[in-house]
Amino acid sequence: MGVRKKWTAIDQLRCDVLVLQEGAVSDLPPATSAMYQGPATKCLAALSFNGWSLERAADDLGMGCLIICEVADPAGHHIADLAAMWAITGTAKTYTQQIASALLMLGSRTRMVPLLLAGDLNASAKGPDPVDHASNI
Asked: What CA–CA distance (Å, rounded) separates 18 from 16?
């Protein structure tokens, strides 16, 4: 993904929380806190900056396609939950089955704060032609 080449743009965004997929851990920008899922050479990452923090949620089931964490502001208040998602290869489930399973699980969660969903949700290995993606919609 070439995240290292995009550090300037990421810095200019001044984001407090960032979700990246397909980045190498070694290329990720310095963060206040970070969570990774997948291989270190091509992972899903949830990062926080500017004093914001992330802590893995108690109900994060370790699904390979999902990171669930609690987001706290610089004062330490738990203000939202974040679900960072992507679909992975090498599993018995298709991309769309992985995303559907994760969404069903997320929809059934009891929560006291808003849930933010971010990541790679195109859920297809069919290539860039929109016609090929019709079955995913």
From this structure: 7
Q: Give pLDDT, residue 124.
A: 54
Name the β-bridge partners of 45: 20, 36
For residues 47 and 28, the answer to whether their CB atoms sit within 8 Å is yes
pTM of the model as a whole: 0.79
CA distances from 35 to 94, 104, 136, 137 (A): 24, 22, 28, 29
- Nearest C-alpha neighbor of 57 from the set 36, 75, 84, 81: 81
Phi, psi dihedral angles at 12 (to 5 degrees) = -65, -30
Give the mean model confidence (pLDDT) for residues 96-118. 85
* DSSP-derived secondary structure for 51-62: T-EEEE-TT---
Average pLDDT (14-35) is: 86
